[in-house]
Structure formats: C-alpha cells, structure tokens
Design a protein that fits this description.
14% strand; alpha/beta; Rossmann fold; seven-stranded parallel sheet; globular; 266 residues; 10 helices
Amino acid sequence: MKKRYGTWGLVAGAAEGLGKAFSRSLATKGMDLILVDQQKDPLDSLARQLETSFGIRVITLDLDLASENSVGIMMETIRETACRLIIYNAAFSRVQKFMLNDPEMLDRYIQVNMRTPLQLIHAFCRLHTGDPDQRKGILLMSSMAGSWGTQLLGPYGGSKAFNHILAESLYYELKGEGFDVLACIAGPTSTPGYLASLPHGKAKNLSVMHPDTVVEAGLRSLGNKPFVIPGSKNKIIYFLMTRILPRRVSLRIMNRAVGNLYREKL
C-alpha cells in the first residue's frame, strides 16, 4: 500500500467499526494517517494508540461530514501531506419506517452518504489529475443494502447504491489517469452501529463478518476490480439474488428477511 499510494492515507469515519479497522490496517503497513470523524474522544484515543504501536504520524480532523466546509478542510490536509489514498467509510443510517424520518434526517443521508464523498472525490481527482504514472486510490464503502430495495432501509440503501454505481463508473473513467477506484460492498458486519441497530437478542443468531476481514478484502481488491463483496456467503447470496432469481423474487426474499429481523419496527 505504501509503495503504491505513498506515505499518507485518509480515512473518513475512522473512530470505530470499519473505519477503525481500516486505520489500523493501514498503520500496520507503515502509512501515516489523516483520521476524520466527529467523535473526538475515540478518534484521539485511536490516534494515540496507532502512533504508539506503529510509530506513524497521525493527523486528526474533528469534523461533521454533513457540514459544507468538511471537504475543504479535508482537501487542505490532503494537499499539505500529498495524500494519494482516501477511504470514505462514514455513513448515516437509521432502521425505521420512511415516514419516521424528519427532513433533517433525510438531508443528512444526502450530505454524509452522497454529497460529501462526491465532492471529496471530485476535488481529490482534480488535485491529482495529470500524472497517470503515480497511483492514487479511492475506496468507497457500500453495502449489500444498496443492492435491493428493502423496507425500513430506503434512504440508506439508496445512498449506498449511489456509492456503488459511482465507484464502478469512476473505475473505468479514471483508470487512465492513474486512479484505482473500488466499492467495497459489505454484508452484515460486527460494527457498533450495526449491532446497536439490531433488536435485543438477535445478534447472537446472526452470521456477521469481522471488520478486519472486510477491510483486508477491500484493500486487497483496490486497483484490481471495480467492486468487491467480502465473504464467501455474501458472494453466494449476491450471485443467487442478482444472477439466478428474478428480481421480484429477490425483493420478496430480502424484504421478508428484513421484516422478520425488525418485526417490532413495522
């Protein structure tokens, strides 16, 4: 990673879960890090751990990624460090009926999950366009929730579908300019956010992936393909639901599964 993308990498949404796992993985590879999150205390704690354990340099940016100035602040640090790798893991998510979302929540889906990564990638690419021999990396975290429309997950799933399609498009459009672009499409993963969304007692009955496994699959695939689905079980489900079964059948199956899991929210 360091040889391909240089000394510095940026992780947006770094304080916990997959972002924390990405940060630690890059640190083990000797990369200095720009860590971005609005959870200041866990972010600062993670930075101290990585600096102490791996002897790397860490810059922390305490940012709300819904804010309009967040891209400008990140880009200023990217320019100062000549950072050539960005991982956008941050996401806003709620499991609830669509009509329970207020206008501010709906805007936050757009801002955190779509507008900020779109503007960040655009600014990052403008900064680094012109040197196709120097590799640059862009990894967007997506979700299998963006592969089908499922009840209780409409705004989140829609925003994750956006990230998937954006990454696939840019993989082909920008590879001639030296950009490696990847959508990492995760299934159920044992992150604090996902586990907190589950009804009481349901977590022990579910098959979930460890964040480190998802992260290594993503980093290993960056530069080799437009998207990756970590985990053999998730790959099989995706293949069956998208290649074998008619979409209307896949939709019924997925909506039944979500409905059974979150029955008390319906």
